[in-house]
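Input record (one chain):
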Amino acid sequence: MSDKEYNVAVVGAGLVGRRLVSILEQRRFPMAELRILATSSRRQEIAGRERQVIEACDEAFEGVDIALFAGTEGETGASRLYGWKAVENGVFVVDNGGDFRMDDRVPLVIPEVNSRALFSHKGFIANPNCSTIQMVMALAPLHLAAGLKRVVVSTYQAVSGTGQAGARALQQQREAAVHGGDLDLGPYPHPIVNNAIPQVSGLRERFPGYYNEEIKMIEETRKIFDYPHLPVTATCVRVPVENSHSEAINAEFERPLTVQEARELLEAFDGVVVVDDPARSLYPLAADADGEDAVYVGRIRIDPSRPNTLDLWCACDNLRKGAALNTVQIAEKAVEMGLL
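The corresponding structure, as predicted from the sequence alone:
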């Protein structure tokens, strides 16, 4: 890491924003100043102590070297309002939101996988979707060794992926299920308690029948691997788990990989931990991934129905490596590469 220190702004004080602050401090990112920006000015407990939160506006980015956007998607997303204006004023922006991930001007980066994409940056870097990050981390070393040919993924996504509203809805519904009373659906179209909802975000015309989370996994995986026609299909499901996403991945390759080869490749890959002893019921669990930085991979087995194909199961803390940690790692890598 550089000896230089940077003025850093974290934009957002929700679940991801608070973790950004915590991870910056845990990893001792070289900061001369840390500003926390949000929709309103207030005092708020963040990462173990009360801090001043500043109302976000163009002027709040003055003197900032690096801005990490926690990620509110949509037309009113913070990066849409302030991101490119900040870049024009010399700020290096890393955006966890989805507004610019597929923008041709913007590299989409997982540092362990495609850090070289940072060389083409124009001051604005996008952090991939949480579900995409953990899948690509699990597939990257196998793809390098054997060449991906097709990917089928099913996700089991925690309510923390819907922010504080999702966490509140699950808690309220759990209490109502025990004590009685009406269920508050929160951000979901159906009760999430004791349920599995095969809908994450909204439908999109260009992929009929696919919800947007599924489209993200298709398009973002292609962009990160620089493989624009890679066949990918996804089914994304919200489940009543507080934190950490799980995924079942079926991956076909150009050449065969044995289970042992796959284990060795994954064990050697930075940021991946293999938990794969099915005879002893050892495999990745969402509960074990919660609060951890790694992507956990297991249940590695050969698909008997299709040649050169493996099945994998992975779990990952979607708020850490799936969001805040990867965002900070992008900034760290940019510093390491001398881009700042």
